[in-house]
């Protein structure tokens, strides 16, 4: 496994492999890897000749009062996990390497960056799409792998790729959960014992919504109401939003039909920690 820190080095290494027609996969991460990331890396590895993982805590996707400075970092542990997955290249640029000292260019997927997560994190997706586009330009992978946990992020990246004719395939893989159901996230380390216990309500909400849907409930307002009632039983949890959107368009669902698939999207704060989760509602 090669660890490279400059754009020049990673480009040189990958250019040679590209000339040999190797299929290059790419998994962008912000490090502090968990089983969710590893599931993406295993998939990337299995379906390509060369697997590239990036570790970069991207400053432009954090708001001024968000957790950029305290975001968990452990490069040594990440590298040993990547080594055991037989990852081929790890790209770990510095902020200077990515943004220099007079960075000016941003890309924004307008409408979809302003709804849901975007209402609570107004500059977040612009930072994500900018860094992901930069990483795509640097790595030039055949395909890149993202987790369904960040469903809106995956949707926005697919939209950017389509709108800007970027020659990369985007694969989205299912959420990986702890044994008790909590969706894996690097931010889970922020939770204290009681917050961690109450955070399970997100998974309980998902099961509740899935069961209502299975039993034939097709009114999104009723499902959302029941989920909000459940979450409100947990005093440490504060709801940012509970929404049901059409999976293809991210429009809020008015009535749900069996021919379509929907995301139930949850964003909840447990103390100072923001948790998101989702599930697909379908027949
Ligand atoms: O999902 C993440 O970890 C980040 O948003 C990403 C895609 C690596 C961009 O910084």
General description of the model:
This protein is an alpha/beta fold. The protein folds into two domains: 172 residues, HUPs (Rossmann fold, 3-Layer(aba) Sandwich), CATH 3.40.50.620; 96 residues, Pantoate--beta-alanine Ligase, Chain: A,domain 2, CATH 3.30.1300. The protein contains eleven helices and nine strands. The strands form two sheets. A six-stranded parallel β-sheet has the order 1-4-3-2-5-6, with helices on both faces. Strands 7-8-9 form a three-stranded antiparallel β-sheet. Helix 2 links the parallel strand 2 and strand 3. Helix 7 crosses helix 8 and helix 10 runs antiparallel to helix 11. The protein is globular, with a radius of gyration of 19 Å. The mean pLDDT is 98. The structure holds pantoate. The site of pantoate has 10 residues, from strand 2 and helix 7.
Q: How does the helix and strand content classify structurally?
A: alpha/beta
Determine and state the CATH class of the largest domain.
Alpha Beta
Give the terminus-to-terminus CA distance.
Answer: 43 Å
Count of helix runs = 11
Order of SSEs: EHEHEHEHHHHEHEHHHEEE
CATH architecture of the largest domain: 3-Layer(aba) Sandwich
How many domains, as an integer?
2
CATH H-level superfamily title of the largest domain: HUPs
Q: Uncertain segments of ≥5 residues (pLDDT<50)?
A: none
Hetero compounds: pantoate
Mean pLDDT over all positions: 98
The Cα radius of gyration reads 19 Å
Spatial order of the strands forming the largest sheet: 1-4-3-2-5-6
- Strand segment tally: 9
Q: What characterizes the major β-sheet? A: 6 strands, parallel
Helix content: 25-40%
Here the CATH topology of the largest domain equals: Rossmann fold
Please tell me what the overall shape is. Answer: globular
Strand content: 15-25%
